[in-house]
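I hope you will forgive my troubling you with a question about protein structure. You will find the record immediately after this paragraph.
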Amino acid sequence: MHLLKYRPSKLAVISRNNRQEIIQAGLTRRDLIKMGLIAGSGFLVTKGGLSARAALSAPGSPPTEPFVQPLLIPPVAQPVSLTPAPGELRVAGEAPRAAHQFWSRFRPRKTYELEAREFQHRFHPELPASTVWGWGGTVPGRTIMARYGEPIVVRFRNRLRTVAAHRGFGRPELTTHLHNMHTATESDGFPTDFYPTGLFKDHHYLNAFAGFDTPEFAPLGDPREALGTLWYHDHRVDFTSQNVYRGLAGFYLVFDELDSGDEQDRNPRALRLPSGEFDVPLMITDRVFDEDGQLFFDLFNLDGILGDKFIVNGRIQPFFKVARRKYRFRILNAGPSRFYEFFLSNRLPFTIISSDGNLLPSPVTSRSVRVAVAERVDVIVDFSDTNIGDRIILENRLEQDDGRGPTGDILPAGRGNAVLRFDVDRDAPDPSRVPASLRPLPAINVAEAAAVRVWELDRRRGAWAINDEFFDVNVVRASPRRNTAEIWILRNDSGGWSHPVHIHLEEFRILSIDGAPPPARLAGRKDVIEIGRANGSEVQLFMRFRDFVGRYPMHCHNTVHEDHAMMLRWDVVLP
């Protein structure tokens, strides 16, 4: 099914301060039934993710004891044989899609299948199980481990309830985005390419560096363009925030000769960063639970949703036993709307090695790590000088009172949000290292830019717009030519909201933030940029458009803003 035309829903114009306007907005009982908010009996749904207060106010979650359950490490997806076998063209049982670009050149060497299913999940022992959706039966979904030079296909199958049988928030129609792999549009998870229960879609991931179809870097692309820490998540138009809140997200980790995933690698080029059990992905989210302990989503909050429970890899405030040695933590802020700035309670420093999964040219040492929605930051934490028995809290001290974004104030130590506890309990050998040089950056020349585009992030009729326009899939807002470069200027004109903006397909380089060069931690290649909440806040980005043609989105990754309707379509076209 494809959405042919986006228009702001009636919900998009409801004042957040007067939710009773749902009546004046014309939402009938039939409308609410269609949305799954009213059961056949005529009462508000009280199970399946909505409390009886869902249409009125967000609840405060029941109290839970922190640090009573261990950190869950998401299981790794294993290759399988697919029937029918995937092909360049659509196969039987597959949702509509275009032919895979570069299929014959990058034939898959491995194939995977992930099924989206509904199941019961306990976020904490003191809460009852909530109804969630997950890939492969877990929240987060199973981690895909990939390598550059080894193309794969992932079959994403929709096994959720049908739309007619569904109750509660979210919508069981899927389109999965691998954020932000260099991927053809037919495998990118475009927001309107969603499909219903019973179908699947085969995503062809080339695992090739950008630039592979240019003479300079053929046949595998420029290794300086490698990515490492990625994640996949649902991207269904209008329902991204709800479907991801339900649990449809997971990690995708990619390795190459430099970042090989082996701390004992004898290849002299290998970085030998912490690996195996000492390479730990951390998907961090915040959620709200109703008075019955059920997962709750405030459908009428259009500013951005803040939770009062902090969840790491599907568990509320877990603990993680660590050895006295170096660890690599891949921190992902999976949203929906909170920004974080993390500190360690014993003032241990972080060694930042990546931004948005892209290795920096050299490590950056810092006492804190800031992570906007959808950003990834890989850090090395060295526990060598701690004592066995030490307990160290990962604390978010960035003040944020509502969905507008952080205030900019850093709270005193111990006054923030305790997210995860590290318990030092043993010694372990440590052959890993953190070299002074990581991955070099490709050179850029702003004189290459074939165009300069200005995008103003606006607020309009209580919803969100770009250049005063809501998302319309039929309107192409930019058409950069394949194998050219452009400068994109993003400017905040929304009246006091922060916006973490994500651009699909290509990483960008930050030329300036409010007229100043970016700090070292943001000087690498990125795919999410935080636009400050002050009116007139501006970033300038340098981008190239290589290899693929087709349509892609740019959107705010505060997914509540994205769903209402801060997104646009742009197309890469042939010269």
